[in-house]
Write a structure and sequence with these properties.
With about 270 residues, the protein is mainly α. It has one domain (about 45-269). It contains 14 helices and no strands. The chain has helices at about 10-20, 50-60, 60-65, 70-75, 80-85, 85-100, 100-115, 125, 130-140, 145-150, 160-165, 195-210, 220-230, 255-269. Helix 7 packs antiparallel against helix 9. The longest helix is centred in the middle third of the chain and has 15 residues, at about 100-115. It is globular and about 50 Å long. The two termini are about 35 Å apart. Mean pLDDT is about 80; it is low at about 1-30 and about 240-269.
Length: about 270
């Protein structure tokens, strides 16, 4: 069920802020809101020529853009970071990413992931651990687990990620959503033990046993960490990688760490 919300409902907004710490101030959302897009800032110049050409084709791919992939927005979109400052802005973004034909989008993301690693495109850059290439690849292969997690709603029909990223009293609630991108959860993170976290981790558990998915490298440690604060039966803590599957990437995620720092700066200043 998608959230239906009146932006003018100030009473409901105030009540939500008091009871959950969720920021719902309509003034934080630009009046002319546009859905964020991946890689919406200047790309690095550190690409081989064929890979740079592939990225240009990617960003003009109408099918790709129509999918509004949550998995790629998380790490690469400054517009997504701005939308995450507002409950209304991030809700509108999630409504767009969830209101797509998943069959078409999943097929497109898988095809693009294969293209990226082709010798004629970004194979050399991928092998050299180019950060933006690795972010693109991980975002493409993690499309479906993050589509499912991004579209989760709570019992009131509010998007779980919107609750998490705008919750000023629990600023680590959004960290688990980065696990499918191969980003480990910081050691001190203690996300709120609620149904949203439980359901998101259940989705991730279904993919963590596949070593072609980046979450195969991050799920178990995060599950054990959540176990410390939420109890031993809160989530499934063991996901064994499938034998014979291709190795997952183990990249450096400096741009993502920067986003985390920006998020913490926003909430504590």
């Amino acid at each position: 069920m998608h959230l239906q919300r009146r932006d003018s409902d100030a009473t409901t907004s105030a009540q939500a802020s008091k009871t959950t710490g969720i920021q719902t101030d309509p003034s934080a959302t630009p009046s002319a809101f546009s859905i964020p897009q991946p890689f919406d800032t200047a790309l690095s110049n550190n690409f081989t020529t064929p890979c740079a050409a592939w990225f240009r084709r990617l960003l003009t791919n109408s099918t790709f853009n129509a999918c509004h992939p949550f998995s790629l927005m998380l790490q690469t979109s400054s517009g997504f970071f701005d939308a995450s400052k507002s409950y209304i802005g991030i809700t509108k973004t999630l409504e767009a990413t969830c209101n797509v034909n998943t069959t078409i989008c999943l097929g497109n993301m898988n095809a693009l992931a294969r293209e990226l690693r082709d010798n004629a495109n970004c194979a050399v850059d991928y092998a050299n651990d180019n950060p933006q290439v690795l972010q693109a690849y991980n975002g493409l292969v993690a499309y479906y687990p993050l589509y499912q997690a991004g579209c989760l709603t709570d019992t009131d029909g509010r998007y779980c990620f919107a609750n998490a990223v705008t919750n000023t009293t629990a600023t680590t609630d959004s960290y688990p959503y980065y696990l499918p991108l191969g980003v480990s959860m910081p050691g001190g993170a203690r996300p709120t033990c609620n149904t949203c976290l439980q359901n998101a981790m259940a989705i991730f558990s279904n993919f963590a046993g596949n070593s072609t998915q980046p979450i195969s490298k991050t799920y178990n440690a995060a599950a054990q960490q959540i176990d410390l604060s939420c109890g031993p039966t809160f989530i499934n803590k063991t996901a064994v990688p499938l034998k014979g599957a291709a190795s997952a990437t183990a990249p450096t995620f400096a741009p993502t760490i920067t986003l985390f720092i920006m998020i913490l700066f926003y909430f504590f200043n």
